[in-house]
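Section 5.1 Outputs to date
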Amino acid sequence: MATNYYVFVDRFIAPCDLETAYQYIRKVEEYPRWWGKVYKKIEKLKDSPEDQPGARYRIKVGGFLPYSLTIENETTHISRPNLIRFDAHGDLQGKGSWFFLETENGTEITFDWRVAANKKVIRWFSFLLKPLFRANHHYCVVKAEQGIKADLQSREK
């Protein structure tokens, strides 16, 4: 396996019902509102009917490292409210899936992200800095969990 290939499987609990958790992830344009500085810019390239595949976005993201990534995502499969799949192209290329499972404490959200890094700095230095790049990804997922929880709390007030 190439050193610039990454497999991430992250899970966290959103303290809300299944449909609410699904809506947080489905509404890509709203990521900057609750995900914060991780999502720097989102441009919708192609619309699709609600809960139908085909929507495309150009997204600029960043973590704690001093670089950003530009990715074009296209939704390829939706099974509301349990699954969203998409393909990614650009600085990262591969496939991602969001899974939603109702639990006692809310909804378990699993993000399965399998990508090759095309951005030169990551591609060139993955052999050496893969743990640092993984930590940057983990930082972004933690920000998602924190952002959803904070947004839910602000809605309760």
